[in-house]
Amino acid sequence: METSQDLFKQLEKAEKLFSDGSIKNAQKIVRDVISKTKTFKKVPNALKHKLNFAIGQSRYFDEMSSFATNPKREELITEITDIITNPLEDPKKQAHRIHDLQAKWQLLDLSSRPASREQWSKFNELCNRGWEPCSEYFDELKAIKVNNANQRFKIIEEINIYVSENSSNWPDVRTLIQYMRGTFDQWQKFAPVLDKDLNKLKSAYFESKKPINDYIKKQESNVIAIKESLISKVDAIDGEDGDLNIKKFNDLKNEWKKAGSAGRKHDNKLWDKFNKSADRLFNAKKEVLDAELVIAKELLGKIKKDEISTKEASNEMQNLSNISKTKEYSLLRTAIKDKKIEQENKNKAEKIDSYLNLFEAFSKQEFDTLDLPKSIASKVSKLKTSKSDNAQLQYVCIKLEIMAGIDSLKKDSDLRQSIQLEMLTSKFNKSSANLESLDDLLIHFFENLSSKDTSAADKTLWKRITKSIGNILSN
Length: 475
Known about the structure:
The chain is mainly α. The chain contains 18 helices and no strands. Helices cover 78% and strands 0% of the residues.
């Protein structure tokens, strides 16, 4: 015989079930305790207070259940009343319509507190009146209800077999939940059943599922503990490196995903708490990003106004590692690239101009007043040739045209072919022949140009050479 302490512990278990949302199981324990206390000569005050509190909880949930389902039952009563008032022309259709309403009523009883005696009596009486025009189909529908009950007993038997085969090594919780949903879908297909079978089936159905539900709750409790531990680990992240902090959080997030489900009641709340705990990490990261974005915009403005060199901007840009994928970073990188190209083009143009100034400087023997290429200006300034060698001047002109990819005059075709053959032979022989570079050829040109008197032919050749110089230095 159970003692008052045993019953006290059962009531504590019932409170836990109420808290977890397992209302039906909790109410069953409360009813069992009420029954057992009736055998006591005197119920201890502590047990009496505990029991009264549990009875209050049970009534509260009954009232909540009734509050949710009673309007639906009243709708069913209204529908059956309408059928009696306006019978369907086809008795068979009316029989099936009543059958459907009875199925809905029984499903409400299965998922919530059963209807009150008054409600049930009213609904049952109306259903019996509705059956009167279609009594010839009653036996057919009764057979359907009996078959539904048999099918539900089979489902219960299958669940019991499943429990027996898997209780020593349960599948994962997701698989169990899917299995439970599948059996419930099957259960719902076979409704209604005879009233005399309804409560017996309902009780057997819940008892068959209990071991599975208990295991799921146990596993969900373990997952809750794991996820609360992960939340504590997020709270403990406090490094100075923002990227490393976020990496640690992402690692914990991967652990979170592997932990499994804590149940619909807890999972979303825990997930929100987990993410809110990490908000400070991302806020710190955002502050770093915002600061770098400000620097990027400032550098962009300076590079456009030429207030800073491309080298200085590139060096500063290396410190903006956190915004490398942003629009601001891309705009800055493009501006630096464009500015470099602009500077390179300017340098090329200035270099080309300095080469083009050589002829004028040589003709006037004024090498200090013009911008000249330093690589050859000193050499050209020392050259003193009394008479031009037209053959050598023409050689330089045509060879530069070949190097620049410019067509020569038709009259120079034989000489051009000869020079091309010479260049090809020199290339394959890998000889270190002179006059292969622009500077060497230009020095050779001025070595064979009269420093006292330049002719119109010399100037014409130089115009052709200037086109070649522009092409060569632009590439």
